[in-house]
Amino acid sequence: MVGRIIETQADIAEGMAWLASHDSRFAQAYERTGELPLRRRPEGFAELLGAIVSQQVSTASARAIWGRMEAAGFITPEAVAAADDEALRACGLSRPKLRYARALSQAGVDFPALKLMSDENIITQLIELPGIGRWTAEIYAMFSLGRADIFAHADLALQEGARLLLGLEDRPNERRMREIAGSWSPWRAVAARLLWAYYRVEKNREGIR
């Protein structure tokens, strides 16, 4: 079943109001962060490839690599499949990411069909692709498909943001983060936006590209 879709800034405001009414710490953090970004992105191959590029690198590095990919025109399945390894590595792709990019270019993903799937079915289908882990699938579902109740539980910036928000002694691991974020349903994707913004304010570092 397809749940709530975040399409406009009004949806973000609705979700934020719900979170603040359920936990005053969200309201306090929101006073620090100000209006949260919509962060809606296009759907399709380029966005999923961009999520692969962002894996396990800083936001600055991810932006730089993606900028080179765009400049070279390597943002379509056809262009990636036709490019030689040297050209892709020159953009900053590691050998594993080069392999994942090629696999994605040849996978024939039915992107329009993903919009009609439940959150968990989207994740299940995407993680079958080489190089697409749960984090990458969650980021795609959250930003490109606008799913309102998706949360990237293994994201280190979200974990640290939660630690700061909740006053925890230690940063919660993925399992603990799942337990914590469960109470933020059905607006977990808005909670994620708040935590990324709060992390940026508190740490002066970006948590997501």
Distance between the termini: 29 Å
What low-confidence regions span 5 or more consecutive residues with pLDDT below 50? none
Q: Beta-sheet strand percentage?
A: under 5%
Strand and helix order = HHHHHHHHHHHHH
By oligomeric state, this entry counts as single chain
Reading off the top of the CATH hierarchy, the class of the largest domain is best stated as: Mainly Alpha
What is the radius of gyration computed over CA atoms, rounded to a whole number of angstroms?
17 Å
What is the overall pLDDT average? 94
Helix content class: 55-70%
Give me the number of helical elements: 13
Number of strands: 0
Characterize the largest beta sheet: strand count, sense, and whether it forms a barrel: none
Shape: globular
SSE-based structural type:
mainly alpha
- Predict the CATH topology of the largest domain: Endonuclease III, domain 1
The CATH superfamily name of the largest domain is Hypothetical protein, domain 2
The domain count comes to 2
